[in-house]
Amino acid sequence: MLRAYIRDRSVAPADRLLELLFAEIVADDVGTAQRVLAFAGFEPSRESMADMRNYMASHPRGRDGRVVYDMAGDFNLDVAALRERFRFYTDRFDVPVEVEA
Description:
By secondary structure, the protein is mostly helical. It is about 55% helix and about 0% strand. The protein has helices spanning about 1-10, 20-25, 30-40, 45-60, 70-75, 80-85, 85-90.
C-alpha cells in the first residue's frame, strides 16, 4: 500500500496534496490543524482556534497513561530489518527515527 501511494501520488495535483508527518502533528497539534483548515480553504476563526486550544489543554497527551512499544522485546521483531524494509518510505518522506534499535 505504501509503495502504491508513492507510485501514484503524482496523479494528484500538488496543490491538492497535503502530507503531514506524525512528529509534526505531535509537536504542534493546533498549528497543524490550522494548516489543514487553511489548505482546505477554510479560514480558522479565533473561536475555532480557542476551541482547539481548550480541547488540547483539557485532554493533554498522556493524561490516561502512555503506551511504549518495544518492537524487539514485545513483538520479537528485528528493528534493523524493519527499518531497511521501509527505507523506501522513510527516506522519501524524511521520517525521523524515534527510537534507536
